[in-house]
Amino acid sequence: MTSGASRMTPTARRVTPTPSRALRRVLVEDHLGASTFVEKGWNLIAIGNFAGAEAMLSRALELAPSDIRGRALLAWARMRQGMYDDALRLLTELLAENSLNAMARVNLGYVWMRKGEIARAAELLDHSSRQTRDPKAALYANFYLGLLFATQENFAGAEYCLRKCIVLAPNFVEGYYELGRAQLCAGRHEEARETWSTGHEANRFNIWGKRCAEAIRLAYHGEEVPSYS
After folding, report:
1. What CA–CA distance (Å, rounded) separates 91 from 95?
2. Which residue stretches of the chain have pLDDT < 50?
3. b/e map 148-180, b = 16+ CB within 10 Å
């Protein structure tokens, strides 16, 4: 008979639970994979396809929810579709994490402008337009400030800011388009036509280049030239 003391007791093994696939996606973000969609989102913003940009950036944030650039660009895409409350929430979260996020501050200025908070918008945009740390933020701060002045019928102020945009980025065709509108509203039709012609020549295939050509046609026939910004 085999004694109890001599029996072999199986060695107990500690079983480590394997994380589920969903849990692994939460714990390990795919920033490399997300970067492809972030770049696509930015390129779509640059040509004015904001709905397409939102789709790309939403996909990026599925892969890497904490991606700062992706979140900032998503706010941008939404605000340019008129989704101001969504954009405000995203931008407020970004600035709570980093109050020095220059592009978030600029886009917050745009949101405040569209929500009618003109004084708050002007303060943010004026300060951002003079900073030198982020050239893209300075460009768009001047652009949005130009739009703000135009809405206040301060066409001289609008022209000053929009000309600064073109100095900062000579191929920024959206700047030519809105500069032409400011000149037209100020009664300087020939200068507006020349500005739009320059914008069209800068990039004939860009949506803003096409809009510059369309603006020339509309102004010639005495029709309203809309702002898409």
Report:
1. 6
2. 1-20, 22-26
3. bbbeeebbebbbebbbbbbebbeebbbbbbbbb
